[in-house]
């Protein structure tokens, strides 16, 4: 078993004319890498009709619908996070209920609102009720604001996680660029924050420091938009960890934090 906890797909109403090919190439590369299940999200229209990090309710719904269709089409291989924009509380909560009832297994928050903002509380509360994890897009040590997004870093995610100790939060793409050491220091003693190893970064020492900071029980393997370095990190982990530890990172931790039956484990 190998679960990719951070995947993305496209659909017809996104800026990519080659959206269909990109979806196929992810599944083809996934088969080569040995990925059993891609846990994916679609961020609205990926910027076509509303901003990537501030999707309109209509685009949020359309993106989730496209992902639900993919999940139905590839029932053994694709699972979805419900992507929501927490600035629209009522829509976000209704969308989470709709997506989870239709078979999605988690919640995706991008950069629509800072993670420590009170507007995220109604989302986290629903995650607790429905016992699903929240994947939060993270900038590894944000030193300033960036146009088009209200990015959060690990310190802000940990503030939210401490307010909601019964919810599992996934800190997105530790290899996604920026100061990952800053993130690892922040999450070290926050037991309900898990670290997603995705992102194209493969800095020397990063995987060792992830293990040292949170231990093998809070690491989740993933790829994000590029898959090749995810594969490289997987090969490196095969040398760094014991077989039992590797199984935790490959899938057993994911099986523990996603709803029962989310993955075909037998
Ligand atoms: Zn991503």
Describe this structure as you would to a colleague.
With about 270 residues, the chain is α/β, with parallel strands linked by helices. The protein has one domain (about 5-255): Alpha-Beta Barrel (TIM Barrel), CATH 3.20.20. It has helices spanning about 20-35, 55-75, 90-100, 120-130, 155-165, 180-185, 205-215, 230-240, 245-255; strands at about 5-10, 35-40, 80-85, 105-110, 135, 170, 195, 220. Strands 1-2-3-4-5-6-7-8 form an 8-stranded parallel sheet. Helix 5 (about 155-165) links the parallel strand 5 and strand 6. The longest helix has 17 residues, at about 55-75. The structure holds zinc ion. Zinc ion binds next to strand 1.
Q: Compute the gyration radius: what is it? A: 17 Å
CATH superfamily: Metal-dependent hydrolases
Give the SSE order as H and E letters.
EHEHEHEHEHEHEHEHH
The tally of strands reads 8
Q: Counting H and I runs of at least 4 residues, what is the number of helices?
A: 9
What does the secondary structure layout of this molecule look like, with pairings?
Layout: E1 3-8, H1 19-33, E2 37-41, H2 57-73, E3 78-84, H3 89-101, E4 106-109, H4 121-130, E5 134-136, H5 154-163, E6 169-171, H6 180-187, E7 193-196, H7 206-214, E8 219-220, H8 228-240, H9 243-257
Parallel strand pairs: 1-2, 2-3, 3-4, 4-5, 5-6, 6-7, 7-8
Bound molecules: zinc ion.
Residues 6, 8, 224 line the site of zinc ion.
């Amino acid at each position: 078993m190998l679960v990719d906890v951070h995947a993305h797909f496209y659909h017809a109403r996104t800026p990519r004319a080659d959206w269909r090919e990109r979806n196929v190439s992810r599944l083809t590369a996934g088969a080569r890498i040995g990925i059993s299940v891609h846990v994916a999200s679609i961020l609205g229209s990926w910027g076509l009709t509303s901003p990537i990090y501030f999707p309109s309710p209509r685009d949020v719904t359309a993106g989730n619908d496209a992902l639900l269709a993919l999940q139905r089409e590839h029932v053994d291989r694709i699972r979805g996070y419900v992507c929501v924009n927490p600035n629209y509380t009522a829509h976000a909560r209704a969308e989470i209920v709709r997506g989870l009832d239709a078979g999605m297994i988690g919640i995706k928050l991008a950069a629509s609102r800072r993670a420590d903002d009170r507007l995220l509380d109604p989302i986290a509360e629903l995650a607790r009720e429905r016992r699903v994890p929240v994947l939060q897009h993270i900038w590894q040590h944000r030193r300033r604001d960036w146009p088009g997004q209200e990015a959060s870093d690990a310190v802000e995610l940990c503030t939210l996680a401490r307010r909601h100790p019964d919810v599992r939060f996934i800190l997105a793409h530790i290899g996604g660029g920026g100061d990952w050491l800053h993130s690892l220091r922040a999450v070290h003693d926050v037991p309900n924050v898990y670290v997603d190893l995705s992102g194209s970064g493969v800095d020397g020492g990063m995987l060792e420091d992830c293990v040292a900071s949170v231990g093998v029980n809070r690491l989740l393997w993933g790829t994000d938009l590029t898959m090749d370095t995810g594969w490289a990190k997987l090969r490196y982990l095969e040398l760094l960890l014991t077989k039992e530890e590797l199984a935790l990172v490959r899938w057993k931790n994911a099986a523990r934090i996603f709803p029962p039956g989310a993955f075909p484990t037998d």
